[in-house]
Write a structure and sequence with these properties.
This protein is mainly alpha-helical and about 325 residues long. A two-stranded antiparallel sheet has the order 1-2. A hairpin with a 2-residue loop joins strand 1 and strand 2. Helix 3 packs parallel to helix 4 and helix 5 packs parallel to helix 7. It is elongated.
Length: about 325
């Protein structure tokens, strides 16, 4: 019986061993004994096992019958009474993957938590479990005091999500890629207005940038010069290069020539070279980085409006496009690890 050994390893002094053991327990979550061993240790006083040692249930590869119910049976009580905030954040993350109708009632107290990371975790659970209910709260979320909460708005209004960054705090997080594309995805006029306001006036460059990308996703003719101004504010230009490279590589064939203004950011990325060659060839006629067209360089220098221009698709019907997982983590300080 491996269970006694796993129970000992959950208490190991090595964080990596604890994490690996927690993953084993999650992989075997269809067996209630393993679920109980994990959660009992998490709740044991003075345990070295921390909520951030426990990753995503879905990433563990366990989709066997009973696993979802066994996990829910342990995380719902964590959200129904006062307790450790780290455990409650973890419970929110599990709720994303084990959602049932009515869970929004359980989450409701956390939407106004003084802890911004707990607010984010609860809203992220709502976003993943019931996108419709999350979108009903967009105006409130867009006005949150934390940029890490506000950014959920543009993230939630993009057709296909790139990654889900699950934060316990600013320096303690993990990322989980999820595909949520839908040919039926629509952004209402009111939601579009919220995105415009965030792109124009949010105090966070991170939030403004994602609002711009959400607007571009719905073919809004934004001023690309203003987007460039926002991108230039990021201390880590390599991260921004990856974000821009992802957008251009996925959409270049539907973009007009003005989008070449974003190519200098791509030059700084380490994105898939074969995909970037297609981007360069489309905008410059060469599969290598090149100089900006003179007209765009002049417009940038003179602070003129550079309108996002789009071309119509020549393809009819719904086409599923394969996407590479891209994990974007923004740091607000240059010194963040």
């Amino acid at each position: 019986n491996a269970l006694p050994v796993l129970e000992l390893l959950l208490r190991d002094s090595s964080a990596q061993i604890r994490k690996n053991t927690a993953e084993v327990c999650l992989r075997k979550a269809s067996n209630k004994q393993f679920t109980d061993a994990l959660f009992n240790e998490l709740l044991r006083q003075d345990t070295p096992l921390k909520p951030d040692d426990v990753g995503s249930w879905r990433e563990s590869g366990s989709d066997k019958p009973g696993a979802k119910n066994n996990i829910r049976a342990r995380v719902i009580p964590l959200l129904q009474k006062q307790g450790d905030a780290m455990l409650q954040k973890m419970a929110c993350f599990f709720l994303i993957e084990t959602w049932k109708t009515g869970d929004e009632t359980t989450l409701a107290p956390f939407f106004s938590s003084p802890d911004p990371w707990l607010r984010r975790a609860a809203l992220q659970a709502l976003q993943g479990g019931s996108p419709k209910l999350f979108r009903a709260r967009l105006k409130e979320v867009a006005a949150d005091s934390s940029e890490f909460v506000r950014v959920l708005v543009p993230n939630g209004l993009q057709k296909q999500s790139r990654s889900s960054v699950r934060y316990f705090n600013e320096t303690n997080f993990y990322s989980y890629y999820s595909y949520s594309g839908s040919s039926q995805f629509k952004v209402s006029a009111a939601e579009r207005d919220i995105l415009r306001q965030m792109a124009a006036a949010d105090t966070s460059p991170k939030v403004r940038a994602e609002a711009y990308f959400a607007l571009l996703d719905i073919r809004e003719k934004v001023d690309l010069n203003s987007l460039v101004d926002t991108l230039d504010l990021f201390p880590d230009q390599k991260v921004i290069g990856e974000r821009v490279a992802s957008y251009l590589s996925e959409n270049y064939s539907q973009l007009g020539t003005n989008f070449a203004i974003l190519l200098p950011y791509v030059d700084q990325s380490e994105f898939n070279p074969s995909r970037l060659e297609k981007v360069y060839a489309y905008f410059t006629g060469s599969d290598k980085p090149g100089n900006l067209p003179d007209a765009l360089r002049a417009a940038r220098a003179e602070r003129k409006t550079i309108t996002a221009d789009f071309v119509e698709s020549s393809v009819t019907g719904n086409v599923a496009v394969a996407r590479e997982p891209l994990i974007m983590v923004y740091f607000s300080k240059k010194t963040c690890p």
